[in-house]
């Protein structure tokens, strides 16, 4: 009986040990979790948003530059983006309804499209929008008449769409908005961004 028990123990023990090392993924690790909500899926299924084609730089500069941040993540500095619709239409013209310019609503739409172009660039650069850790800041320039004082309402178009796409807290950003008498190509708005991303 004793010899039989010893033989059985010697036979079974290696299999048990081997099985434990063969399937390490079965042992849960602390602080480990999955992301179940993907931003691209929400864009298509919930928001019904079609991103434009990711723009390319129009001169001797890069569309995105990156640098490490103090917390070991990465900061992206996104160049100024134009208000280009998915069909390629460029939204142009000065905002200033009191001086026969575009309305606040038209400016808002232009800023929204500039924001979507930034999202398209991030998707093209990162491959996965879930890698966005924080939209840190956006800076918007509105082509407007000298008597127009509501550039902040125009830039709400960009802020609102970034919040729709990334939600709180990721999409909740700092912001500056200014007016100018002219912009390249007569565009209505131009928007640049600083974005922190997660490691791959």
Write up what this structure looks like.
With 200 residues, this protein is α+β, with helices and mostly antiparallel strands. The chain is built from 4 helices and 5 strands. The protein has helices at residues 2-22, 39-46, 104-126, 151-166, and strands at 64-68, 74-81, 132-143, 174-180, 189-197. It has a 5-stranded mixed beta sheet with strand order 1-2-5-3-4. The longest helix is centred in the middle third of the chain and has 23 residues, at 104-126. It is globular and about 50 Å long.
| Helicity level | 25-40%
The biggest sheet, with number of strands, parallel, antiparallel or mixed sense and barrel status, is:
5 strands, mixed
Distance between the termini: 57 Å
Provide the residue-averaged pLDDT.
86
In spatial order, strands of the major sheet run: 1-2-5-3-4
The structural class is alpha+beta
Question: What is the chain-wise order of helices and strands?
Answer: HHEEHEHEE
The radius of gyration is 26 Å
What is the tally of helical segments? 4
- Poorly predicted tracts of residues: 1-37
The gross shape turns out to be globular
What fraction of the residues are assigned to beta strands by DSSP? 15-25%
Query: Total number of β-strand segments?
Result: 5
């Amino acid at each position: 009986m004793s010899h039989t028990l010893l033989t059985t123990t010697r036979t079974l023990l290696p299999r048990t040990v081997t099985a434990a090392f063969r399937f390490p993924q079965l042992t849960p690790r602390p602080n480990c979790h999955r992301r179940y909500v993907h931003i691209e899926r929400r864009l298509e299924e919930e928001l019904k948003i079609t991103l434009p084609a990711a723009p390319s730089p129009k001169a001797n500069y890069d569309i995105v530059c990156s640098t490490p941040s103090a917390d070991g993540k990465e900061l992206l500095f996104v160049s100024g983006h134009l208000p280009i619709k998915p069909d390629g239409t460029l939204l142009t013209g000065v905002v200033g309804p009191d001086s026969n310019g575009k309305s606040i609503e038209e400016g808002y739409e232009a800023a929204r499209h500039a924001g979507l172009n930034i999202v398209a660039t991030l998707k093209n650069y990162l491959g996965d929008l879930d890698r966005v850790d924080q939209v840190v800041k956006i800076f918007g320039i509105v082509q407007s008449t000298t008597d127009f004082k509501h550039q902040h309402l125009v830039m709400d178009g960009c802020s609102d769409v970034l919040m729709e796409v990334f939600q709180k807290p990721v999409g909740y950003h700092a912001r500056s908005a200014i007016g100018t008498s002219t912009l390249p190509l007569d565009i209505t708005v131009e928007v640049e961004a600083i974005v922190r991303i997660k490691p791959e």
